[in-house]
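Re: beginner question about structure tokens

> Can someone show what the tokenized structure looks like for a real chain? I only ever see the sequence side.

Sure, here's an example I had lying around. Input first:
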Amino acid sequence: MKKKYINLVNKSKWLRSEIFEMVVKVNQGHIASSLSQAEILISLYYSGILNIKKKNPKYKNRDRVIVSKGHSAMGAYPIFADLGYINKNELSKYGTPSGKLRIYGDKSIPGIETTSGSLAQAPGIATGFAYCSKLDKQNFYTYVILSDGEHYEGQLWETAMFAAHYKLDNLVFIVDRNKQIILGKNEKLLKLEPLRKKWESFGWNVFDINGHKYSELVPVLKKTRKLKNGKPSLIIANTIKGKGISYMEDVTRWHNTMPNDKQIQIARKDLLKNCIHE
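And the corresponding structure tokens:
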């Protein structure tokens, strides 16, 4: 493991454990989808990529981050608590009537930029943010974490055309490419490949990386901020759904299935181990 990424690796372990405990306490949520995107979120919030301020989720010049696949927006809640956007006690009230934290990302939650869950709607909103940033000369970046399934929506490709046409090089989409949707493996159901060529044909910068390796995630995120070539950027982050829990990894049924008591204990042991190499 490269020493420069040790702190981020530890953050990954922390985030996965927080997500897991948050969900199993109320027996509702999407564990596997949240685990596959963990390194993406940690890279954004803890490696110096984002212009943000602790305890101030409404900081005017902040970079915007949207988890478009709204069922896994909950994977950012522990980060919001760590940054002081919400009280840490809210994590223990996740999914309950007395708490602020809903199962799906909701704009009422500090740190959530827009309500998401209707697939491919959030990318259009994010593109509007990026467009307004250019018009108003605010100079903030907008990042969107996309799912595989959103590529089946025509609205996403309309957004891709708009962003390229208006040269929104302050817009970065990151595909959590775990190659699954709720019904199974997408390459069997309705193939997306060649995904890179498709996005390039729409006029985007495209990068293809291992979405669990900080040695690939962090440099490419930094690169997208320096390009300034008049093109929006898309990062295909190849990931594993359920990453970090042995019996969940790359198994479709865990999209929204809850573990039993025995499986909970196995998962806790798995999450104590290092599941990321660098």
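Each token stands for a local structural state, so reading them left to right follows the chain. The mean pLDDT is 95.
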